Structure formats: structure tokens, C-alpha cells
Amino acid sequence: MELTANETVAATLQVLRDPAGIPSHPVVFQVLMVFTWVFHMLFVNITLGSALLSLYAFQHRQNRHWNQLSQGMTKAAKVSVSMLIVLGVAPLLFTQVIYDPQWYSSNVLSAAWAIGFIFTLILGYSSWFVFYFKNHDGVKNSAIWWGIFGLAMFVLDGFIMHVLSYQALLPEQWLSWYSADGQADMSGTGLHAYQPGRFLFFMAMSITVLGAFLSAYAHYYKVREDKEHHYLTFVNRLGRKFTFAGLLMQSVTFVWWLFDLPEHLQALQSPLSWGILLFMAVFAAIIKGKQSREMPASYFSLAMAFGLIALIGIFREALRIHYMLPFDYDITDYKVMEDIPSTALFFMTLIGVGGLVGGFFLTAIYKAGRTQGMYQASKQVSQLGSAAVGIMIGWIAVFFLTGIWVWLHNV
Amino acid sequence: MLETLGLYPSWYVPVIGSAWVMGIIGTIHVLASHTSVGASWLFALIETKAVRENKPELMEYIKKYGVFLLVFSYIIGSITGPGIWYAITVASPKGVGGLIHNFVWVWAAEWVYFTVEVIGVYALVYLIGKIDPKTHLKLTWTFALASWATMLLIVGILSFMMWPGNESWYQTGSTLDAFFNLNFFAHLGLRTAFMFAIAGAVGGILAATMKDKEVRIEITRFLSKMGIAGVFLGLIMWMWYVQTLPENARIIMQTQLPSYIAPTLFAVLAATLIYFAWSAWKPLQLKQGFAVAMTAIIAIAGLWPEERSRESIRKPYVAGQYIYSNQTIARDVEGKQIKSNLPQIAEHGVLKTHPFTPVSLREVTETNRLQAGEFIAKVMCANCHSMENTGLRPMPQKLHGSTDVAMIKAYLGGALYNGTVPYMPRIPLPEFEQQLVAEYLASLSQPQAAMKQLTLAESR
Ligand code: HEM
Fold it and tell me: May I ask which residue range the UniProt record assigns to the signal sequence (chain A) (predicted)?
């Protein structure tokens, strides 16, 4: 009995799934994957946007405000690369749980690029650090090249990410990419497919998010008397301009992306597509309105930008589901081998450690950043600190007690 | 249509092999990550001293080391972390998939720590002097404990790569059974000891630059004590660790490791001890260059051979003693309803069951025999052997340059078919594919021989 081409691909996808199955319901992983990816993207956008702005501002640093902005943005980009990396790890993990056939095939077929991604990211980030250490008052013009190289590597890495994500959606083409002239091409040096509209859309989103980030930045420092009022107003205005411009570019590239999608996805008929366009239009209108009335800086734009990224995250996953339909690939039929203890480990760590320890660190940074001079912890913050130490000791104790119990149980 | 096997495309790196790519990234990562966990404990201990004895000048050192750590460990460490993962992904997708599907929640918990830690390291460094000392001390201790927790989690997964520690996991499939066992505890002890030693060595790079003489002496002595404790603890843990290895790993360790490894490791150990003892005795003589050199020696002459050996003694498996390096599943695992791939390979071979066999190789003809043999050989052997004359366990050398097809075929049909070589997978190719692989392997040493084979086959 001959299988059709789609049936063959479907069978391949099925056997490539890991035989060990997954330890919880697939939808749990799917939700976590989309949710954590939103944070990854938020910081990708902050990085690319602030890096670009810091380079532009660097060229205008004769002006005091631009100078200050350039230094501030260089630092922002530096921190946010760290964040985008750790926040990338989570979706990387979860996508491999439910979409392992797609992710692994795509990666192996472009293996040299997947590895190159690591090395270029190290080079780019190191270069950015050099730029950061140099970018202080009295810096030479030539320092900008460190920054340019850093940003170029970040964009390249974003492109590699895009290619890996996109290739994963095209299982019907994997075999032909792999077999060049009838022989298997095991070099992994090819980049086989990309979608300009989609990639540029993510790049444009950096401008929107940069703008939102600037408004939030201006708002955050309002309470610090050493940060000049003029400067903050300047930053805030700039922020709104960028958000508006970014939204325009995003709308254009989004439509481009939609038109690039295969017919059978019917993306143009989807309410989600229209919803996103509408969301962007409303967001832009509010920003435009605000601009004329000189609204003060706030966290509003950042919240909206986050909402937009979340919608895109959902859209991206909806697309993947539809791309997989012809191959009957449905995550909900993944073999589940329920494992309660390790599931509990994660959720308890997330709430206990993520909440208390993460909460303590963030609170300390937030409060101290808004205080001039030394911040004397309030009673609550101090208690939060003690609770953080406590939960760590508790966690480690439980870990070892469980470990010893399991070991004794098995000997 | 035949059932296909869950095999991904292969990535073949000429000469060095994909295993070396993994080794290089892994060594860098181990250096960076252990330094950062060790340093976090160093910070906590020194800061406790600073607060108790009211010596705020010690904080200057923490600040310096912290900034260094941010650049060195957090750029390099946090990128090479996913980097190792990517490297295993492309070198051995089935291996990383197996680990992830067994341990996804453990890894996810690790990720929570990882995220918290990145926020924590910025807080620790930038809030020195910007937040009251007591609160900062809490922050530093939380950070140290959280850093160590990441080690607790990841070492369990790494230990599973060696083996699940006992038979129970194969029956229950439970993550706890896969995770906790003596091999894990010994491995954890070993890494914890190592992190103190390496943080002590790297710490010297910064200590040597301290302006205040008193502080410099105090810190350098502290580092030495920590380093020496780490080395001794490490030795004990190593002896224990070896006892907890599975049988086949111990055989490989005794018979297969290159002879230079043991003496090199001992030399590094001795050098480290001398270095720490001397810097405790004459702290002001410790110059930055020495500390850099010591770190480099530990990394290149200590870590690299150690990482490579751990990788080698795990052979032929990548994970849990059930996934071979060449992606095939070696045995049934009842607890996870996993079936061995070997019976199917024995029956139908690779060409017919590999989902990524190029269409033109599905039917073997007189003109594509060599390509077909090459494909099978690369899929089944290239994860561990380079097909060139140099590099990772070069195949032509391993075959002693043989061009004797019948002899190679006998080897494939004997030792490899039956899986009698402890460090190699069982590779039960059917007779027809043994012939193809043998022809290809013979051609590596003498291209003409292959041509003759072809003409022979044609005339048949
Ligand atoms: C400067 C560095 C980076 C940039 C600019 C970047 C950018 C991007 C972009 C643009 C996408 C969306 C691609 C698309 O859907 O077409 C993406 C997705 C993703 N990124 Fe990153 N990224 C970076 C680093 C990382 C790192 C270090 C990791 C992992 C540790 C990571 C993990 C992911 C994952 C898992 C996805 C989703 C893949 C999927 O769902 O199939 N990224 N990234």
C-alpha cells in the first residue's frame, strides 16, 4: 500500500517523537511555551531597540541629553541580553517537549548555523560589553564600531532563530534539503527557508517596544531628583514617537507576512489576524492622541506592548498548529507518561523560589534604583529577604531528604 | 510501507567530529559555571565576615569579582549553557530528546533558578553600597544557595547520561528513580569540590589587583584555604565517584583512556596544591599573571581531559544506557513503554527504515552502492569515528588501512552485529548492508579498491 506524500511526512513526524513520552498533559507545555516566549520576545525587542538607539544617540552625543541617553541605552541593552537569553531557555525547553520532531530536524539540517549562533552570540555580547565599558564621557568616535558589531551579531542571531523556527514548519521539504544530488548532505551549512515579512515584523516590533520602554524608563526615574526633569520629558517624547513609528512598520510587515502564508492556512480570514491589526491601530491612535495632549510618562505603553507581544505569541502558535494540520500532527495525542513528583517540583519551585527569591531580588533592585543614596530596607522588604533565605534552605533540605529516601528505597 | 525508525538527519563534521564541538563548548561552560557557583559561596562567606567584623573594605573585592563574574561567567556561562544543549541537539538529537522527555520538569525548575540567578547577580553587584548591609547579606546568601541549587538539579541529569544508577528506573520510569542514586551523590560532591577550587583560582586574578595590602593578604589566604579544601574534598569524592560507575564504564576507563590522561590529571592536581599552598604562604607574591596561568592550566590540562574522559567512558550510550550515540534505542524500557530499535534494524536494515534516506538511495543499484554504503556508515558510525585519516578515532586507522572487504564485513557481521565490543553500540546490520558498508570503508583507504569492487560487482 502506497502512502501519499503527506501521509509519509505524517508517519515520519510520529516516529520522530521521543519514545519516552511526556510527563504531563501536552497543553500544559504548550501554554508554558507560549507564555515564556512572550517574555523572551519582550527582551529581544528591548535589546534590539535600545542597542539601535544607543548607537544613534552616540552619534549625537555633543548634546547632553543624547549623551546621557546613549549611555543609559547601552546599559539597558547589556542587561536585557542577559534576560533574553535566560528567557529564551524556557520556550527552548518546552518547544522540544511537544514539537521535538520539528525542532530537531530543523536544527540538524542547519547545524552549523545553530552552533554558529552560539559563537556569534558570545562574540556579539562581548563586543557589546566593550562598547559599554568605553561609552562614558569623553569616549572616542571609533568606539561605535564595537557597538555596531554587537548589534549586527544580535540581528544575525535573531535571523538564525527565525530560520530555525520557520524551517520547523515545513516538514514536507526536509528530505529534499537533506538530499543534495541524491546524496545525504550532512554538513548542516545550509539555511533552507526564511520568510522576510515575518522576520521584519519581529524587527519592527523592536521599535514599538523601544518606545514603550522609554516611556516606562522616564516614568521610573521621575522620583529621582538627580535625574533632570527636562531629560525625562525628552525621553518620554521620544518614546511616544518610536512607538507610533514602530506600530506603522509593524502593520505593513504584518500584512506582508499574512500574504506570504500558504493559502490553506486562511490567515486572512482569521479573526485573530484582524484582531491584531485592530489592536495595533487602537494602540497607535491612543499614542497619537496622547502626544497632542502631552500626557505624562507612564507604564501604559509597556503594558500595551506586552499585550501585543502576547497576541503575537498566540498567533504564532495558532499558525504552527495550522501548518501541521495536513500532516495530522496534533500535540494532544502525544504519549503521556504522567510523572507527578517532578511536575510538583517545577510548580513548587516556580511559586516558592520564583515568587519569593525572584520577588526579593526585583523588589530590592526596584526600590534601591528609585532611591538616591543608600536604601534602608523597610520592614516588609527585610522580612521578604529572610523568607527568601528560608525558602532556599527549606528547598535544599527537602531535595536531600527526598533523594536519600529514594536511594534507600531502591537499594 | 515499512515501519520507519525515529532517526533524525545526521550532522557530520569532518575531521574533529561533532563530539569535539560538544567537548569544546562543554569545557568552556563547565569552567564558567563552576566558577560562578563557587564564587557565589565565596561572596557569601566573605561578606558574612565583612558584616560581622565590620570590615566594609572587603566588599570592594566582592564588587570587583562580581563585575568580572558578570562579564566572564554570565556572558560566557549563560550562552554556553544553551550552547551545550544546541551542540548535543545537533550532534545527537535523540540523546537530548531522551533527556528532555525524562527530565523536562527538573530542567524547568532549573530554569526558574537560572532566571532568578541572573537577576540576582545584577542585584548583588550593583546594590553594594546602595542598600543596607544586612539586607545585602541576605541577598548574597540567597544567591549562593540558589546558585548551588542549579548545580543540584543539573548534576542529576548529567549523571543520568552516565546511567540511572540502578535497575529500578527501567521498570518504573519515574523521574525520581532516574535522578537519585549514589552515582549522583558522588558526582555532586565532586562538582561541589571542584567549584571551590576553581573559584579559588579565578579569585586570585582579582585578589592580585587589590590596592589595600591588608585586604589583599586576607583575601588571598581565604582563597587558598578554600582552594585546598576543594582539592582534597575533590580527591575523596573522585575515589567514591569511580566506585559508583557502571561496569562497562569502569572497563573503558581501565582499558580505553589514552595513557596521558591519568598522569596529566595528577600533575594538574599537584600544581594546584602547590599554587594554593604557596599563595597562602606568600600572599603578596601572587601576581595576576600566575592566577590567569593557573586557571588556564586547570581548564586546558584538567577540565578538557576530564570532560573528554567522562564522555568516552559513557560510550556507547548518550543517555541512561538505553540510547546509543548513533541515535538508535538499545533496549526496551518497560517503565516508559520504550522499544528497542535493534530488531527492526536487523530485519530491514537502515536504508529502508531511516526516514531521511535520500530517495535515490532507497533502491540500491550498481551505480550508487558506494553512496549507499557511505550513508549507512555515516549514520551508524560517524558519531564516534571520523571518516578521514585524522581526527576523532579515524576509521581508516581503526581498520589499519584495510582494503579487504571480506574482512571488514566479517567484523561488521561479528563483533558489531553481536554487540560484543563494550565501547561500541550493537549494530546489527543485515548481510546486504554489511556488504555495502564494508565496500565503502574499504574504499576509504584505497579509492581504487572500491572501483575494482564496483567493476567486479558489475561483471557479476
Ligand atoms: C540576540 C539573540 C536573540 C535574538 C535576536 C532572538 C530573536 C528571536 C526571534 C526574532 C524569534 C522569533 C522567530 C520566528 O518566529 O520567526 C525567536 C524565537 C525563539 N528564540 Fe530567540 N533570539 C535570540 C536568542 C535566543 C536564545 C539565546 C535562545 C535560547 C536560549 C532563544 C530561544 C528562542 C526560542 C525557543 C524561540 C521560539 C522557537 C519556536 O517556537 O519554534 N533565543 N527568537
Answer: none
